[in-house]
Amino acid sequence: TDKDARVLMLRGKLAMLRGQTTEAMVFIDQASTLYKDRDIEALLLSARARQAEKQWGAAVERLELVLSLVQAGTREDIQSNIRLQLAEMLIRSRKLDEARQQLTVVLENDPENVVATRLLAQWHSSQQQFDEAIELLETLDPNDPAVAQSLAELYKSDGQEERGAAMLQAEFERNPADLRLLQRVLQNLETPE
């Protein structure tokens, strides 16, 4: 019944908040079954739990179901958001052609979409196409920490170690409380040239 599905969803959400993603998946999937896999929230939560467990293929399947549900006459921003999540998981699961298709659709509708541009750069990087990835990221705001850190890594991968190190250092100076960034800067300093 609908009440049973709501209770299962609540249990799943509580398990997610506690970091018990395996338990959350059980509750959420039971709720989704009761909803006959037609409830977007249940499918999105199921995808998120599987993403946390690094079950990329299962997460992709759920997001594809969500996309098929929302494509029929819903808002474009919802479709784009789902396509971006789907593209990210497809990249992680090395389904690069499918990821590229999702990114192409988003960028055709919104050529200025920053997340899609960053993901497309990640796609190029995964194909060892560092120049293309760098070119894309250089069109974005260099003060965005995600952009700056990605560019620094790409410069390093492209043989521009000094440029990458300088970018990491500048990013750390803007964000001195970021301990992961400090670790990367220190690793860069320890790397012999």
Strand-helix topology:
Elements: H1 2-17, H2 21-34, H3 40-52, H4 56-70, H5 76-92, H6 96-109, H7 114-126, H8 130-137, H9 145-157, H10 161-174, H11 179-190
Helix pairs in contact: 1-2, 2-3, 3-4, 4-5, 5-6, 5-7, 6-7, 7-8, 8-9, 9-10, 10-11
Task: Please describe the structure with a list of short key phrases separated by commas or semicolons.
single chain; 193 residues; mainly alpha; 11 helices; globular
What would you say about this model in short?
The chain has 193 residues and is mostly helical.
Could you walk me through the main structural features you see in this protein, from its secondary elements to its overall organization?
By secondary structure, this protein is mainly alpha-helical. It has helices at residues 2-17, 21-34, 40-52, 56-70, 76-92, 96-109, 114-126, 130-137, 145-157, 161-174, 179-190. Helix content is 77%, strand content 0%. It is built from eleven helices and no strands. α7 packs antiparallel against α8 (130-137). The chain is globular.
